[in-house]
Model the fold of this input.
Amino acid sequence: MDGVLIPTLVSGLLLGSLYALMASGLSLIWTTLGVFNFAHGALMTVGAYFAWTVSEQLGLGLFTGFVAGIGAAVIAGVLIELLLVRPFYGNRSMMLITVMTTLAASTILERGISIIWGPRLKQLPRVVEGQVEIFGAPVSAHEALIIVLAPVVLLALWWYTGRTRSGRSLRAVGQNASSAALIGIDVPRTFSLAFGLSAALAGLTGVLLGSIRFVTPGLGTDPLVNAMIVVIFGGLGSMGATAGAAYVIGMMEALLILWLGLYWTPAVLFMALILVLVFRPNGLFGRAA
Amino acid sequence: MSRLLDVQGVRAGYATVPVLHGIDLHVGDGEAIGLFGPNGHGKTTLLHTISGLLTPTSGTILFDGQDITGAKPSAIVAAGLVQAQQGNTLFGDMGVEETLELAAFSPRARDGWQTRLEEVHSLFPRLAERRRQRAKTLSGGERQMLSIGCSMMCNPRLLILDEPTLGLSPRLKAELRDAISEIARRGVPLIVVEQDVEFLLALAGRLYLVEQGEVASEIDRDNAPDHQEIMDMYFGKQAH
Ligand SMILES: Nc1ncnc2c1ncn2[C@@H]1O[C@H](COP(=O)(O)OP(=O)(O)O)[C@@H](O)[C@H]1O
Ligand SMILES: [Mg+2]
Done:
């Protein structure tokens, strides 16, 4: 048993890191606009494909590929905000409408990608080669990099939203848009900023993921449901709670796969989410409203 | 006196309800004016329109010689026209100091923000005592102080205060009124909405009575009506 448990926990840690990166991007938009961006996964995929084209097809190197992938995701994210979210600001049903429009964006991007890049599986090279050991379990250095990078990105975001003028303006707009406007914050521009940053995170996550999984049109949309579970599980709010929830879900998923297999894991995760929401409507770590 | 703010024939309202039916008023540079009138007659709607939260259906708003009709609220603040809105709850999860720092957001507010923060603290010492407290845990009076403090952090050329003492205890009302008088003394032009006409007369050179979305009358401090006449204006002619 011991021989399986440690590698399982390590893969849970890796999943948790992936969910933490995704969920922090989702909650950046949620806390600023009160909108769930269902195209977040598709933006990851966009990032991975552009990175692959620039780095592998054009042979411009992995770093240039990363920059191009993240850039493409940001452009797509800002376009989604401008075209599919902005027209519904102030609408009473904005949250529901944007569920539909961002889902539509997700589908369009995913289909578009399979038309442009075709069905052949692709893979990005690893940022670092070789293997390391975590608690005696062998892990590729690239996966270890993701495990280290996730908390670094989360800390950077925490610092940005807490300490910088522009980061604080995101929180202000989310908490009271008209008060924010009356101290001179450009609210629509702040919405674009939130989408742009979130898309940059999506792009980064996508390119990192593209070298441990095959780059397929479903690269980002597959883990999206679990990332959304994380955001709700964490209580739709603080960065810390969302990060905590990401690692809990990642570990649970890895252990459930070990004990129950792939087939039942999603169902049990959903059951856990429902139970948490029944007993703690503000999320696992959420405070009472 | 040159006109700092000039509101000409402004009509505005909400989706289906027109509220303002052609408002004309002005504020001179260095002047303080007061607005009063019964509840629900359009004072807040007018101030929201001036600050760009609502777009007028017709009319013109000039500020400092510039046409700001229909401009973005952020651009209006950047020009120096700043408002502390009625019942402002601000940013619930942000601390007092953090909120004040953020309020120096617009480019005109950035230089010398530390000095302005000290001014706000001298105006409202309680805000200095509660630096780290979150806005949503403040009392009504403290939140009002924070709201006015935020507006001061914006480095206003003209400051609008919409019912700054609404719902406060007499003691707090007096404290806030002293602070507002102090702001006027420091030379910041003001538009203040208040129910207490006596306070407005002590503060402002001219008062406008807003009724049913129009300016029903303009009162000059130098030939101000007496208490009974003001009460009559308020409660309408139906009393007679
Ligand atoms: N958001 C809104 N939507 C629709 N009607 C509103 C809204 N806000 C205020 N009103 C209406 O506009 C009128 C004027 O309100 P307001 O400007 O707040 O008056 P005052 O500040 O003088 O008390 C009232 O009849 C009020 O019901
Ligand atoms: Mg009002």
Notes: Chain B touches chain A through 30 residues (CB under 8 Å). DSSP finds ten helices and ten strands in chain B. Residues 87-156 of chain B form one domain. Chain B has two domains: 1-80+158-240, 87-156.
